[in-house]
Amino acid sequence: MNIPIVVTEQYPKAFGRTVEELKVPETKDNIAVFAKTKFSMCTDEVKEHLEKISGIEQVILCGIETHVCVQQTTLDLLQQGIGVHLIADGVSSGSNKSDRVIAIEALRQSGAFVTSCESVVFELLRDSKNEHFKEVSAILKEPRVDVGL
Questions:
Q1: pLDDT at 20
Q2: How far is CA 105 from CA 13, 39, 90, 119, in A?
Q3: What pTM does this model have?
Q4: Angstrom distance (rounded) from CA 78 to CA 110
Q5: Which own/partner pairs from 74-81 qualify as long-range (CB within 8 Å, at least 24 positions apart)?
Q6: Taking the CB of residue 117, how many other CB atoms lie within 10 A of it?
């Protein structure tokens, strides 16, 4: 769908790269990958990159460690006046399920729009006549894990 995608990797020298299942290419025009040590993805490099993409008013956010990285990123983006659509079934917290639930609620209270993967995909498609509809629909039919929210 040619949507700009920004991927950040928390200290990849120690924690490794993005998992292969996400199929993040090393280079592609609409995808940028940045290493970071800061918990928020809003590093100087990422901010510079986002400034080059004109008209960003909203982002779709997913990631790991909801109560740390996702939370700090969401708050930073909201502070910059960027609307955040937080994908509830696209975030996780490794150590404790309650950390994720509490963080999602805190981010909702802070002004993030909490939604689901399927909802946001259909918002992007808007119409079953969209050229990507069949491809995306096939992906959405694959079994998914119930995230318990």
A1: 62
A2: 32, 19, 15, 18
A3: 0.86
A4: 8
A5: 74/107, 74/110, 74/112, 75/40, 75/107, 75/110, 76/40, 76/42, 77/42, 78/110, 78/111, 78/112, 80/42
A6: 17
